[in-house]
Structure formats: structure tokens, C-alpha cells
Write a structure and sequence with these properties.
The complex is a heterodimer of chains A (about 450) and B (about 350). Chain A is α/β, with parallel strands linked by helices. Chain A is about 25% helix and about 25% strand. Chain A contains twelve helices and 22 strands. In chain A, helix 3 packs parallel to helix 4 and helix 9 (about 370-380) packs across helix 10 (about 395-405). Chain B has about 350 residues and is α/β, with parallel strands linked by helices. Chain B has one domain: 3-Layer(aba) Sandwich (Rossmann fold). Chain B is built from eleven helices and nine strands. In chain B, the strands form two sheets. A seven-stranded parallel β-sheet of chain B has the order 1-8-9-5-4-2-3, sandwiched between helices. In chain B, helix 1 (about 25-50) packs across helix 2, helix 1 packs antiparallel against helix 10 and helix 5 runs parallel beside helix 6 (about 170-180). Chain B is globular. The chains are: A alpha/beta (about 450), B alpha/beta (about 350).
């Protein structure tokens, strides 16, 4: 007798929905038979039996959400002992239909964090939403608002998005406005820029920004520079968006952080949000912006939940940093996923008597230098945190700004936390060594505080 | 999307016609005048370059005039034109002011981009001219994007994307071909095959030198056209535009042409013989051809043609003078037009 366990679809998957059972108690299965289907917000997969035997019991009924990886989902008995097996412990109960496409404005209780308390009657200004759905809601709202907005990219339509960010958009807006492209980044980026020059407002999705390397000529030479070269005649209201930076265990070619590459270019705006509210508010602002905007998302944030205001007219202005945690002892600057690490580090530091101020940059170009400089004038110390490499990087720019504009306020040399100066390795231990960590941030913060 | 493979044939150019091909006297005279304007304008640009008034790169269109003029003849209001850096002739036929074009060449405030673009980067939304692009092949994807916008809006307009035999080897050209045919986008690809990509002849750069066949694996029809014959260009462009406008998707025209001058202003001219250039000038010149047709029909005597020449020379002289006296851009222009709605 053995248990069949909930499998993981990816290294980052922690839980999923047991969408469907193809077998019932008493059925004989052979290895390789498809016995169930599981889903996450990213993907759907069939579960195959590994061993032969008789299904003795279905332990998790179909339709159950948030089933943790490695939870026993069924019990398999040897064929000979089938007759003496007890009746199913949990008879399959008809589960409510789980819609494949979640309607944009609806949060089921199961989507909340498992340990979240019942929301108070007076709900705050927001609704718990994943970063993934916040991005989708932003696109959907802007597409409803402006007929010239459309989405193009690989697998954005029928597949519902490689990371399910565009889930439901094809159904609502049709194939004219949700365009599945061939795998042809250079070409479709150029088509998008051309359409923008003709007055439309394309959202060009890159499956990851690693693939945008093929298209970077159009992002820079065609999108960023044409307004200038045309003496202000040709505008390019376009958003290039997609996940940027390290995913988990996908190695060097799929893991690069391009923040400083794009933030280097006059003519581009560059946005890199951390939480779902900023993801939504900034993406809406980016779509409405008359300039080309590079919108850097993070795969490892897609599934995280935050409060998001529901007002469809609410946006977050591009170009403003946000102090996520005030503190008097040291400034930590970060963007995208690194903000989460900085906030965790700040909690640890607080227990050691060091109050860190966490500045979420949110926009990298134009960079909100004033907020950074003012923070350093209060704390007199700074550690910049970025996921990319430090040479010629975001931290280099921040440190240069602080040196130029707050030199007399500094009580310690600034430090930069960044990825190790090597291509990102695949091996789990090396990958962990390469990427910035909470521990390294804490260590650096203590160092600039001479502790 | 039913496709009729039989229609997707490519065809080679017919022999150069010796009659006016149904063109009226006024049309022929207008084309003659436009081609002459381009030639005189480019000759003057070459002079100004030699005088140090124009800097950087400057790619002259001399020899290729019939293509811009013949395609323009079938353009409808709202149709867009986009090309690479050999763009002066296209801008003139699209209706941009010769003064603005010449002043852009000299980098002056009166230039169409207020001096910030130069020879390779000029635009006019009013004239439907979308550049003027310095990256070889970029205009093909961008032009296909203009066509995507036409298709999205259902406005019945066609985008004409011009590129050279050199650009025809860029990967994004084929990415664009694929999507244009896949989505039936209204775009006409006009390959100006002047036989040399900078200094590399087409035989040395291309495994298939018949560029009109380059769309075959995407099911895009293509035609070879005598690009030195404005009437042949017009006729082919009319077929291509009709194909694109009627929803059948893209069409490729390979214009066989020749540039008399170097690739840019500094050109070693070691890759072809003087005799080769002279042979084309003597026997295939597009302007001489129209002049002969006009004479044969008795539609213009020498005096009439001289009057046109004088008129064109006056326009060019005026543009050159404007470009000389127009002031350099204000230093504040350094930081304008980087972002819409942002003054730094």
C-alpha cells in the first residue's frame, strides 16, 4: 500500500488545485495511466500513476484548492489486496465547477492566504489580489477604457499567457486586441513600435525580458529615440512588459535582470513594481503614458497577494519612489522582488535595535533621486539592493547620486548588494550563493552602522 | 483564410516598354518634374556636403528616382511610406518642403526635425512619411506595424515599406513577412535593389539574388520590376497596392535599379567599374527615359523641358539658401522631445 502525493509542477510551486480525478476508488491503474489533473495559477498538468495497483481511496476530492505539495491525495493498494481494502475514506464529492478563467473582479476565499484572518467588515481600500491578477486587471481596465490599447506577444491569447498574466483577456476582447504572435521577438517588437507610431497603444509582452534581447534594437533605436529624431513629431505610446530577473533554477540565459540596461536610455521610462497595488497602478499609468515604457515584472512575485484598490481610475504616478518602512538608522533602496527581501531584513534589524528605512524605487527612469537623498540625509547611511550585477548598475547610480548630493550627510561608505558577478548558475546551492539574500542585506546594514 | 496557391506566383519583369503606358501628358510631365527635382536636390546636397555644410552620413538617391515617383503615383491619402536612410527622394515626393529637408541636412533649426535627426532621420506625420531609419531593416518591421494599425482600424490604407538589397538579408525582414502574410496585413514591400549593399554586390551577399522570390516560402507574391522605368514602377505598384488594399495581404516588388553615386559620401568606388556606372547612366537613366517618351509623343519640346528644369533649379537653390541661413538649433533643444509632456 502506498500514498500518491501531490506533485510539484515547478520548483516554485508550493500548492495547487486538484482539478479533476479520472479514477475512483476501486479502479485498477497501471503505471503511466492519467489519474488526475492538477492546476496552479500558472499551469495545468496531468498526474500519472507511477505504480500499478487498485485505488483504495481518494483522499482529496476534486475541486479542492490550495493542496500542498507532497500531501497524500490518494491511496494505492496492491492488486491482490483489493478485495479486503476498506471503503474509501473520503468519497468523491461533487465539487463546484472551478472556472478555468477567473473573472477579473472576484476573489474567492480560497485565494486568500491560508492563515489570513477573516477580512474585517470595513474592508480597507483594497482587495487581496495576486500581482499576476493585478497586472491582468490593469490591462483589462485600460482596454475597456481605450479602444486603441491592445496586447500582443507569445501565448498571450489562447494559452492564456505563459505565466497566466493575460488570463481571460482573449475571451473578453477577442483576437483583434489580444494577438498571439509567432516566436519572433525582433519582428513583433518592431510591429508594435510601428503600430504605436501610427497612434495605437500596444502592450508588447515578452515571455521574459531575456528574450527581449532579440528585440532590444527596436526598444532603443526605434521606440526610445524617434520622438527626438523627429523633432517631436512621431510619438511611441507603447508598453514592453514581462518578467525580468531570476526565476528559480532556470540558469543563466533565463535569469538576467535588465534594470540597468533599460534605465540607461533617455527616451524610455522604466518601471519595476514590487507589490500588486503598484503593479496595477503603475501598469495603468504606463499604458496611459504617451512615451515608451519598459515595465519589468518578476516571476517570483506573480503569485504573491497584496491589497489593491478597486477604483478603476486609480493609478500610481511614474517617477515616484515609496518609503515602505520608515526608519532612522539606515536607508535600504530596492526595487521589484528585492523590496520584499529588504523589508524582511528591516524586521530582523529592528530586533537588533537598528531601524532601517526601506525605499521602494518603483520607477528606475526617471529615478526619484530626491526621495533617496532626503532619506539618506535622515539616516546618514545607505545600502542599495538590486538583483542584477553591480558593475555599472542601479546601485552604482544610487551611490553616485548620494555621493554627489548628500556627501556631507554620510557617516559611512555606501554599500551595494547585488548578484554575484557571474552568470547565474543552475545548481541550487550556487544559485542561492549568487543571489542577494536577507542575510547579506542585514550584514551590510550592520556594517554601515559599524555594528 | 482560404489561400489560393495558384495566385502566389512570382514573376519576372517584362521588357522595358517603349510607349507611355496609358499615362497622360500631365502625368508624364509631373513625374518628369518630380524625378528632376530629386536629382537636382541630391546634386546640390552633394555639393553642400563637399562644402562642409552637411556632416555625417549622406546617402544620395540619384539613379533611383523612378521608384519613389512611380510608387507615389498610386498612393492614396492616409497611405504611409517608410524607408531606410536613403530617404531624401522619398521625402520630396511625399510632399515634404524641400527647404525643411535641406535644412535638416545642414542641421539647422528650420529642418524637419529641427536639426536633431539629420539625413537619415526625417519624418512628417502630415505627409504620411514615417522615416528615415538608420538601422538597416528596421523599417520593414516598423512598416509592417503601420500596416497592422491600418488593419486594426480597418481604414483601407496601405503601408509602403521600402528597403534595399542589403536590408533584404536581415532576419527581421522575414519575421515581418511571416506575420504580414499570416495576418493579411496591407503592406507593400518595395525592395530597391541597386545591386550593392554598401560595397558588397548582391552576388557576393545573397544565395538567392532574385529578391522578388524571397517571399515565396511565406506565400507572398512577388514581382521583378524595371525600377528605372517610372511607368513600369507605377503599374506594378498599382497591382501590389490593390492586392494589399483588398485584404489579400502583403506583396513584394523587387525594383531593379542602380545608384550612380557612392553608398554614402565617402565611398572608395573600388567595388565596381566606372564603365559599369557609365553604361547605366547612358542607357537606362530613368529621367532620360521619360524625356524620350515626352519627345516621342510630341508632349514637350526642348523649351518646355528647359522651363521645368529652371523651375526645379530655383526650388533647389531656394532650399539650399534656406538651409544655409537657417540658424543652428537653440541650445535648449538638446533636452526637448526626449519625452512627450516632460520638459527637463
Amino acid at each position: 500500500m502506498s500514498d500518491i502525493l501531490m506533485p510539484a509542477l515547478s520548483p516554485t510551486m508550493e500548492e495547487g488545485t486538484l482539478a479533476k480525478w479520472f479514477v475512483k476508488a476501486g479502479d485498477a491503474v497501471r503505471s503511466g495511466d492519467v489519474i488526475a489533473e492538477i492546476e496552479t495559477d500558472k499551469a495545468t498538468m496531468e498526474v500519472e500513476a507511477v505504480d500499478e495497483g487498485i485505488i483504495e481511496a481518494i483522499l482529496v476530492p476534486e475541486g479542492t484548492e490550495a493542496v500542498k505539495v507532497n500531501t497524500p491525495i490518494a491511496r494505492l493498494g496492491a492488486e491482490a489486496g483489493a478485495g479486503s481494502s476498506p471503503p474509501p475514506v473520503t468519497p468523491p464529492v461533487p465539487a463546484p465547477e472551478v472556472p478555468k478563467v477567473t473573472p477579473p473582479v472576484q476573489a474567492t476565499p480560497a485565494e486568500r492566504a491560508p492563515d489570513a484572518p477573516t477580512p474585517p467588515a470595513a474592508t480597507p481600500a483594497g482587495r487581496r489580489t495576486t500581482v499576476r491578477d493585478a497586472l491582468r486587471d490593469a490591462m483589462a481596465e485600460e482596454m475597456r477604457r481605450d479602444e486603441t490599447v491592445f496586447l500582443m506577444g507569445e501565448e498571450v491569447g489562447q494559452y492564456q499567457g505563459a505565466y497566466k498574466v493575460s488570463r481571460g483577456l482573449l475571451e473578453e476582447f477577442g483576437a483583434r486586441r489580444v494577438i498571439d504572435t509567432p516566436i519572433t521577438e525582433h519582428g513583433f517588437a518592431g510591429l508594435g513600435v510601428g503600430a504605436a507610431m501610427a497612434g495605437l497603444r500596444p502592450i508588447v509582452e515578452f515571455m521574459t525580458f531575456n528574450f527581449a534581447m532579440q528585440a532590444i534594437d527596436h526598444i532603443i533605436n526605434s521606440a526610445a529615440k524617434t520622438l527626438y529624431m523627429s523633432g517631436g513629431q512621431i510619438t511611441c505610446p507603447i508598453v514592453f512588459r514581462g518578467p525580468n530577473g531570476a526565476a528559480a533554477r532556470v540558469a543563466a540565459q533565463h535569469s538576467q535582470d535588465y534594470s540597468s540596461w533599460y534605465a540607461h536610455i533617455p527616451g524610455l521610462k522604466v518601471v519595476a513594481p514590487y507589490d500588486a497595488a503598484d503593479a496595477k497602478g503603475l501598469l495603468k499609468a504606463a499604458i496611459r503614458d504617451p512615451n515608451p515604457v519598459v515595465f519589468l515584472e518578476h516571476e517570483m512575485l506573480y503569485g504573491q497577494e497584496f491589497d489593491v484598490p478597486e477604483d478603476p481610475d486609480w493609478t500610481v504616478p511614474i517617477g515616484q519612489a515609496l518609503i515602505r518602512r520608515p526608519g532612522r538608522d539606515v536607508t535600504l533602496t530596492a526595487h521589484s522582488r528585492m523590496v520584499g527581501l529588504a523589508l524582511e531584513a528591516a524586521e530582523i534589524l529592528s530586533k537588533q535595535g537598528v531601524e532601517a528605512e526601506v525605499v521602494d524605487l518603483r520607477t528606475l527612469r526617471p529615478l526619484d533621486r530626491a526621495t533617496i537623498v532626503e532619506s539618506v540625509k535622515r539616516t546618514n547611511r545607505i545600502v542599495s539592493v538590486e538583483e542584477g550585477w553591480s558593475p555599472m548598475g542601479v546601485g552604482a547610480e544610487i551611490v553616485a547620486t548620494v555621493a554627489a548630493e548628500a556627501f556631507d550627510w554620510l557617516d559611512a561608505p555606501p554599500l551595494r548588494i547585488a548578484q554575484a558577478d557571474a552568470p547565474l548558475p543552475y545548481a541550487a546551492n550556487l544559485e542561492a550563493l549568487a543571489l542577494p539574500s536577507v542575510e547579506r542585506i542585514v550584514e551590510a546594514a550592520l556594517k554601515v552602522c559599524y555594528r | 483564410m482560404a489561400r489560393q496557391a495558384a495566385e502566389r506566383k512570382t514573376r519576372k519583369a517584362a521588357a522595358r516598354p517603349t510607349d507611355e503606358g496609358g499615362a497622360s501628358r500631365d502625368q508624364l510631365l509631373a513625374w518628369y518634374r518630380e524625378m528632376l527635382l530629386i536629382r537636382r536636390f541630391e546634386e546640390r546636397a552633394g555639393q553642400l556636403y563637399g562644402m562642409g555644410l552637411i556632416g555625417g552620413f549622406c546617402h544620395l538617391y540619384i539613379g533611383q528616382e523612378a521608384i519613389a515617383v512611380g510608387v507615389q503615383a498610386v498612393r492614396r491619402p492616409g497611405d504611409q511610406v517608410i524607408t531606410g536612410y536613403r530617404d531624401h527622394g522619398h521625402m520630396l515626393v511625399c510632399g515634404m518642403d524641400p527647404r525643411e529637408v535641406m535644412a535638416e541636412l545642414t542641421g539647422r533649426a528650420g529642418g524637419s526635425s529641427r536639426g536633431k535627426g539629420g539625413s537619415m532621420h526625417m519624418f512628417s506625420t502630415e505627409a504620411g512619411f514615417f522615416g528615415g531609419h538608420g538601422i538597416v531593416g528596421a523599417q520593414v518591421s516598423l512598416g509592417t506595424g503601420l500596416a497592422l494599425a491600418n488593419s486594426y482600424r480597418g481604414n483601407g490604407n496601405v503601408a509602403f515599406a521600402f528597403f534595399g538589397d542589403g536590408a533584404a538579408n536581415q532576419g527581421q525582414v522575414y519575421e515581418s513577412f511571416n506575420m504580414a502574410e499570416l495576418w493579411s496585413l496591407p503592406v507593400v514591400y518595395v525592395i530597391e535593389n541597386n545591386q550593392y549593399a554598401m560595397g558588397t554586390s548582391i552576388e557576393r551577399s545573397s544565395s538567392e539574388t532574385h529578391l522578388f522570390r524571397r517571399g515565396a516560402s511565406f506565400r507572398i507574391p512577388g514581382e521583378e520590376v524595371d525600377g528605372m522605368d517610372v511607368i513600369a514602377v507605377r503599374d506594378a505598384a498599382a497591382r501590389a497596392a490593390e492586392h494589399a488594399r483588398s485584404g489579400k495581404g502583403p506583396y513584394i516588388l523587387e525594383m531593379k535599379t542602380y545608384r550612380y553615386r557612392g553608398h554614402s559620401m565617402s565611398d572608395p568606388a573600388k567595388y565596381r567599374t566606372r564603365e559599369e556606372v557609365e553604361e547605366v547612366r547612358r542607357n537606362r537613366d530613368p529621367i532620360d527615359h521619360v524625356q524620350e517618351l515626352l519627345a516621342a509623343k510630341g508632349w514637350a519640346d526642348e523649351a518646355a523641358l528647359k522651363a521645368i528644369d529652371a523651375d526645379v533649379r530655383a526650388i533647389v537653390a531656394d532650399a539650399a539658401e534656406f538651409a544655409r541661413i537657417s540658424p543652428e538649433p537653440d541650445p535648449a533643444e538638446l533636452f526637448t522631445d526626449i519625452y512627450v509632456g516632460v520638459a527637463r
